[in-house]
Write a structure and sequence with these properties.
The chain is α+β, with helices and mostly antiparallel strands. It has 16 helices and 17 strands.
Length: about 425
């Protein structure tokens, strides 16, 4: 194995680790979905639903069109193999990994649940009522708990936000788990009603858990810097991450490597290669990525690997957006060659390409590859048409290779980002 990798080699290592070096399967069933989930380690949740919900998209990027109902059965089923926790931000994790996150649950409790002046202490009676409701009635939606409280006329403080925040805190602390969803609305239950007893009884010590998470991050990334490995599971303790890297080097799971172009000032940025990593001679992928795909979710890494500067502009005022409301990176070959802002217009059964852009140096054949992905994306979402706007340096190329596509003018005004508030657990910072 090489001691030095070019940037292109590092890209191919990273894409292979994420499953992009292999052909898309002809059929996608439970086995293929589980394999993809295992390669990624976690599936991030976000409730923005302009084109498709973000947790569906990494699987589409790797496998093409598939039945999202099959993924729903895996992720949302009450007795399914996955459960939600803050393993990056809000993510789906294998249910047996619940014990691996005891250290984070304890940290969350220490941060949010111990101050005598904090929200958790001020709302102790609410929290006790919520615990009792879940113990007596099993998995519930917040609205069901609130309705029961209102019928009992327990006071004006029984509003949706108070019940919801109580549930979110208890979830962060590991007392409560998510028992599936109805639509996209969570159902909450006491952890013992969802998590197997043997998992609850076997919490992993903090040092061991961080070492295992760094190991998994390295396997999912293939090649990574220390900041990459820390970000994969959002481990803020730099010292613990570096200690874990040292242990994994000593046991032979990781090997130091230099990536050309990964520099920190005048010095190379330290990086490590996982023992299972491969360096493909080529990667011929074609995919539209979610902003929350592990390939691009750490923006610093995306810039180092792909020379791709990326931000989501959903909270940027429309006239100030550079690329669009919810632009999605476009992967062709082993590089990110552009971005497209997509919207599913259900009323007209049309996939709207609100903008399309090429990156500098995008290869020949890029338009044809992107056009194929757009057609696949439209079919996956059950949309009959594709319409291309007039905004972006790639729209002319797309129009040339998609003569049957409709055309529309650029839309400046967009509705504010629609989020249900439970996709990012960190949003609770605002109520402490």
């Amino acid at each position: 194995m090489k001691d030095t990798l070019s940037r292109a080699e590092a890209r191919r290592v990273a894409l292979a680790a994420q499953g992009f070096a292999r052909p898309r399967p002809e059929t996608v069933g439970t086995r293929q979905l589980n394999l993809a989930a295992a390669r990624m380690g976690v599936t991030q949740i976000d409730s923005v639903n302009v084109f498709a919900r973000s947790h569906y998209m990494p699987y589409f990027a790797r496998m093409g069109a598939y039945d999202t109902a099959a993924l729903d059965r895996l992720l949302f089923g009450l007795r399914g193999p996955y459960v939600e926790y803050i393993a990056h931000v809000a993510t789906f994790i294998p249910i047996e990994d619940w014990a691996l996150w005891r250290f984070r649950m304890d940290e969350m409790r220490a941060k949010y649940g111990t101050s005598p002046d904090g929200w958790f202490a001020r709302n102790a009676s609410t929290i006790e009522w919520v615990r009792a409701e879940l113990a007596a009635r099993g998995p519930l939606r917040p609205a069901e708990i609130e309705a029961d409280a209102q019928r009992g006329r327990r006071g004006p403080w029984w509003d949706w936000d108070v019940v919801k925040h109580a549930l979110e805190y208890l979830w962060m602390f590991g007392e409560v788990s998510i028992a599936g969803r109805r639509g996209f609305e969570r159902r909450y239950a006491l952890a013992e009603q969802v998590i197997p007893a043997e998992v609850l009884a076997s919490p992993v010590p903090r040092e061991d858990a961080i070492r295992e998470l760094v190991r998994r991050a390295a396997r999912s990334y293939g090649v990574a810097s220390a900041s990459d490995l820390a970000d994969y599971y959002r481990i803020r303790d730099r010292k613990a991450v570096m200690s874990a890297i040292g242990d994994l080097v000593d046991e032979g799971a990781l090997r130091p490597v230099r990536v050309l172009g990964w520099d920190r000032g005048a010095r190379p940025l330290p990086a490590w290669l996982h023992t299972d990593a491969v360096v493909p001679r080529s990667v011929d992928a074609g995919a539209i990525l979610s902003p929350f795909d592990p390939v691009v979710w750490f923006r610093d890494r995306a810039e180092r690997l792909f020379d791709f500067q990326y931000r989501i502009e959903i909270y940027t005022p429309a006239p100030q957006r550079a690329f669009g409301y919810y632009s999605l990176p476009v992967l062709v070959g082993d590089d990110i060659v552009g971005r497209v802002d997509l919207k599913a217009d259900r009323a007209t059964s049309t996939l709207l390409v609100q903008s399309a852009w090429w990156e500098n140096g995008a290869p020949e054949g890029r338009a044809e590859r992107l056009a194929a992905e757009l057609r696949t994306a439209a079919a996956w979402q059950g949309l009959e048409h594709v319409s291309i706007s007039a905004w972006g340096n790639a729209v002319a190329d797309l129009g040339r290779v998609m003569p049957d596509a409709h055309r529309h003018e650029r839309v400046i005004a967009e509705p504010p980002a629609a989020r249900d508030g439970d996709a990012q657990a960190e949003d609770l910072e605002r109520v402490t």
